[in-house]
Amino acid sequence: MEQEVERYRKPTRILHWFNAGAFVILFFTGLILFIPPLGFLAQDSWSRILHRVCAVIIVVGPLIYLLTNWKASWKGLKEAFIWGKDDLEWLKAAPRYYFLCDEKAMPPQDHMNTGQKLWWLMVIVYGVVIGVSGLIMLAFKTTAPAALLQWSVFAHDVAFIALGAMLFVHVYLSVIHPLMRPLATGAWSSMARGKVSAEYAKAHHGKWYDRVSKGMKESPSADK
Amino acid sequence: MAKAILYDAAKCTACRACQVACKQWNELEAEETTNRGTYENPPDLSPQTWLKIKFMPEVKRNGKIDWLFTRQACMHCTDASCVKVCPTGALYYHELGFVAYDKDLCSGCGYCEEFCPFTVPRSERNLWTGVAKMEKCVFCTVPGLDRIAEGYEPACVKTCPTGALTYGDRDELVAVGRERVQALQANGHPNAYFYGDKELGGLHVMYVLDDSPEAYGLPVAPQVPAVAIAWKDVIQPIGWAVGGLAILGLGLNYIIAREAKLTRELPGKKEE
Prior knowledge:
Chain A is mainly alpha-helical and 224 residues long. Chain A has a single domain (4-214), classed as Up-down Bundle (Fumarate Reductase Cytochrome B subunit). Chain A has 9 helices and 2 strands; from the N terminus they run βαααααααβαα. In chain A, α1 (10-31) runs antiparallel to α2 (46-68). Chain B contains 6 helices and 12 strands. Chain B has helices spanning 17-26, 81-85, 111-115, 155-159, 170-186, 226-268, and strands spanning 3-8, 52-55, 59-61, 64-66, 69-72, 91-93, 99-101, 122-125, 132-135, 165-169, 193-195, 205-209.
């Protein structure tokens, strides 16, 4: 049996898949408002009810996680803000890696690589924007001043565009990109089963793997 | 040929027959209200009240008490903010120029209510589910009750006993309105103003006022909110571009990367 390393604990994975499901529904129930010929799908408020239910899930889920896993949450949030020289190197080497599949050029990465950190940072920033503007529209539609509601729609839309485009990139880079095949070893496996092969961990998250393999007495999971 | 309603505030006696006719023709329920010490009733527009006469506070002008009345209902703009922001196409421009409404299509999002410079659209909103249906004056074009399609004037115009409301070709009414305002200006109303001629690309409900718009509580130089333009004309096209380019870019990357991976793997087996 090939050696494996734990990458995401169960609560993290459950949160991820709840968010993923809610996000996809939120995305499509929002997208139809961009396409007037599909307006009939929104008639009589049905898509808006669905949008609201998923909005609650995608906001309450992380809050529950935050409260019950505050140590892991704190560590995870910090990850987005720790940047160093290797990140610059990573960005320089990324085009060669993603287009030419040149794996050698990549500098060693920690638990999250630069791309993942960038993505995670945008999730945090735009997540707050879309969450706050959404809350204003959901709860204060009849009481907030019109100008505030106008700007909320605007901000919600900007964040929607950013997060929607990021969703494509995220799904593509984790399960469709040729380097992510076979699925059983890498990103898909880390979120589906929580584990990746030691081989994959060494190649893609060298710094993290070194730490984890040295300190096996410690917890094997980096997000603990 | 664009049609319009001309409201001559100087001829209005605030009898509110138009309010009643509107409710009657469009089958809108009466509202139970309480005495607030004013003839103005109901206090505001609502999903059941698409048209009402607003009573301005009495003012003293030229040593006389003056009481101004104004008509409150959809102004049927040429550049309508509500049509611009309506995401489902429920609000649209009628071929005769005014703002028509396909109620079935309304999703209840409430954007029209937030962006209307005249705060005309109204809805009853379930705060938990968010379910709502917007209501507003639709120029007597409610399906099955469409007076305009039958060649009749709107119900409010039909019932007006003083001739304060007239219906007709917009161009003709503009000429009539300008003349009336000039006459008022020459007869002791120097601030008389013709409202709706140019506002928002030209309104399809125009007002002959014997004082300034401010005196009647009408917005001076109403505009489509800048946010609506930034949102609909800038951000949304950018959104399509970003989404399209992202998918295009990823597809391109897939083709190139797959080739690269295959060529790397063919001779490279020994390297591993």
